[in-house]
Amino acid sequence: MILPIVAYGDPVLRKKAKPITKDYPELDTLIENMRETMYGAYGVGLAAPQIGLPIRLFLVDTEPFSEDEEFSETEQEELKNFQRVFINAEILEEEGDEWAFNEGCLSIPDVREDVFRQPKITIKYQDENFKSHTEVFDGLIARVVQHEYDHIEGVLFTDKLSTLKKRLIKGKLTNISKGKIKVDYKMRFPAMKKKR
């Protein structure tokens, strides 16, 4: 089932998400619905806060990037086959010189900006079967994981922009939070404040 994606301005996107246990109700269904929602919106990642749940769960599937010719054949192959569920993730280390890449977010449609991130991460997480993993990712995979990980920490990619860039996109962000935007996927906009 495709779920509505929560738009910029909703307080759930600013909450530090809570860990979950293997008895979380209907977790398999939730993961399947999140996957369907992510693909329906042509995303490469989706975090639970983006569907209104402040829990430490996100999915990543970098296959759409595998067609991009700016990457080597080896990188394209890695991107094509990278699909993961991350539960209770914790980034242990970020390494290397920061590099810029143009990022967007399903919760912030029509806003794309260059974001600087470190190229290599070590992350500890559990998969959908609650098996524990500690893995090292680099390049674009690391970046997508970092972006989704930020969501479970209550951080958005726009927080990483310069003051000037933030000022330049302020109007767009206000319009998104008010629902004054057209998107081709289901969205849920923050409740409008009633005037007295």
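That was protein one. Protein two is written in the same sequence-then-structure order:
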Amino acid sequence: MHYLEFSETGSGVAVIPIRETEAWALVDGNALSNVLGSTLTDTALGLPPSASAVEAVSDPKDWLNHAFAATHPTGRPRKQGISPLLNALAEHVSLPLLRRLTAFAALEDELGEALRQLRILP
């Protein structure tokens, strides 16, 4: 991870996860069910059974779409798909579950290091 310094406006850290955000959404079936307004189990949603299985998914967006479809949405939600729900999901997903994912743990470590280099964290 690289950090950015802005001479007059302060400092910042650029974080650009591409495919990871969809994969991270798959790690917490309870949060996903809640956001989807469903009581389906992880198995019924078709979610990977473990953190390592989540990281092995080659197309996490496709898995999310299948989980969404398993809830049998109708009307406007069906037309909009899963994308509008990702922000709500990010607010509900369990950090301890996310930390089981190698990519998330690495992001958290690198972000902390960048913030220490910028002297934002001790």
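The beta strands are 3-6, 10-13. Keep this in mind for the problem set.
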